[in-house]
Amino acid sequence: MSPIRTDFATSDPPSLPDSTRDSYGGQMPRPPRLQVAGGIYHVTSRGHRRQAIYHDDDDRHFFLALQDRTFRRFGWHLREYCLMTNHFHLLFDTPRADLSRGMHRLNSVYSTYFNERHGLDGHLFDRRFGSRLVETEEHLLDATRYIAFNPVRAELCSHPREWKWSSFHGVERSFAFDA
Fold it and tell me: Where are the alpha helices (DSSP H) in the chain?
């Protein structure tokens, strides 16, 4: 039996034989996230195993307050949002290329709050957050409509203005609602 190596922290790990490397499919790590100063992003994050990330209105109020603090801290401008039971949608501008830093803060602080409040541990969110850079006016309008109609498609309300946990609640915005 070979001795156990303990020097991994100070040296490179041993190379895998070609036969082992091939069995892993030879996949490269995922590319870095596209982060653009002055970008507009549609960001989503879903609960692990599609579990609820908000158990009650107090959770939603905390999330919105945290989102507001995070956006102020990073200088982001919120355009639209929608909180669903097991995920959220945010549409916002980032003046600097700091999307990952801000979303890490938002999701990790909220996860800590949620787990402590509900006596849980482990992951709250599934995978890393999803983001799409909005590059055209048409894409901006499509993203706005998609976010607005998310609770309607989920049959939680019949019109976006009826969903309390959205920037569209109680607002008449024909440009977003006209299909």
Answer: 18-23, 57-74, 99-118, 137-153, 174-177
Would you write out the chain's pLDDT as a tens digit for each of its 179 residues? 545 434 444 445 455 555 544 455 667 777 778 899 999 999 999 999 999 999 999 999 999 999 999 999 999 999 999 999 999 999 999 999 999 999 999 999 999 999 999 999 999 999 899 999 999 999 999 999 999 999 999 999 999 999 999 999 977 766 555 55
Helices marked H in 75-167: 99-118, 137-153
pTM of the model: 0.81
Cβ-based burial of 14 (10 A; exposed 0-12, middle 13-18, buried ≥19) = exposed
Classify residue 157 by burial, with Cβ atoms within 10 Å: 0-12, 13-18, 19+. Answer: middle
The upper half-sphere exposure of residue 80, i.e. CA atoms within 13 Å in the direction of its Cβ, equals 26
Query: Which domains does the chain carry?
Result: 39-177 (3.30.70.1290)
